[in-house]
Amino acid sequence: MRSPILDYLDDVLERTDDFDAGAVADYIPELAAADPNRVAVALCTVNGTVYASGDVGHEFSIQSMSKPFAYALAVEDLGLQTVLSHIGVEPSGEAFNELSLDPESGKPRNPMINAGAIATHALLTGDGDTATERMIDLFSRLTERSIDIDEAVANSEMETGARNMGLAYLLHSSGAMATDPRVAVEGYIRQCAASVTVHDLALMAATLANAGVQPNTGERIFCRQTTKHVLSVMASCGMYDAAGDWLSAVGIPAKSGVAGGIIGILPGQVGVAVFSPPLDAHGNSARGVEMMHRLSDDLGLHLMDAGRPARSSLRETRVADVEGEPATIYVLQGDMVLSSIESLTREIVENPPKTELVIFDMSRVDEVLPVARRTASEMATKLLDEGYCIVLVDPENTVTDFQDSQGRNVQWWSSERLEQGIGA
Ligand code: GLN
Q1: Is 71 annotated as a binding residue?
Q2: CA–CA distance from 251 to each of 200, 315, 401, 409 (Å)?
Q3: Among the atoms of ligand 1, which is closest to the Cα of residue 193?
Q4: What is the mean pLDDT of the chain?
Q5: pTM of the predicted model, to two decimals?
Q6: Which of 302, 366, 371, 315 is nearest to 339 (CA)?
């Protein structure tokens, strides 16, 4: 049986079939030769299954969609503060190949435009490996296959790369980039010439959606903080001077490339990728933008579209004898985030437990966000102050770091002990 998700992706291609706006990039001669009729779409959820339709095996150069990944690697290498001291995070409102520098600091405005991406590439050095080798290795780990550079595209762009070379010389001469401009631009151009399919891009996007963990191999490629930062910069700067329109209409962090690809990420859910070579006036794939609009509307991807509010963390409150003593048992569930923990604290504040022994059964809790951890431990401290004894049943160790500052009566029980205690 064919998956309805594949049928849906076919439908996206069909519904945009008569869309023929835009023109293929011609400032890189090799790209001018691209077949404008090639088209593909793919999506991959954080579970790692890729669904793709159209010219799914067709390879094209990643171009600027490499920028967020190079930036993530630089942040992992050097730490965010160091990278921010070289490259800003403000949308430039200008075309991707402008020399958009902050007038005060002289830093490139952001890492998603060429000036910032060349400076980012220049920050990447490895143990003997060139920055480009590291990028190719990164792409291969993200896509679960061996990624190659399209040498014809790389050479073609080197021959006509005067503008990027000019940007790099200006960055170098103003002190914004220490690396030899020719080395930085050649490496950056090779990074952009990595050859990928929509299938590859969906996996790359899904890794960002999955907080930096490649969904199939389980490898943590970027830490959570880095991923969050990179997605924020993609949201505000990823679509160049169309970034504001994009965020309001499509509503997800995204990045386009001049070969015709666009990736988009809904954090925690899905990565999507589209491909169609003709570009609009902003240098974004024209049909790709159209397909992304449809994906966003049909699949409910817009970030600002509030989803179902989180369930209350409190599944039920029970009063029972446990190990022969009366106890109040709060059975918690799901992800503990601000809105879900608020209902738990409200219940405790409005109906304080009537037994001295208070048990928090966390065996059904999935994840505890820092805000919930803080609120819960403050709540526990208050209960201890009131003279209650607290038991935590936390088999997944979701709150391992809870400690009462005065070392008071908090006990950790296993789920079995609670079950047997109630039965006793
Ligand atoms: N390699 C291309 C360039 O630097 C990347 C630009 C893009 O994809 N927008 O011009």
Answers
A1: no
A2: 22, 33, 36, 48
A3: 1
A4: 92
A5: 0.86
A6: 371
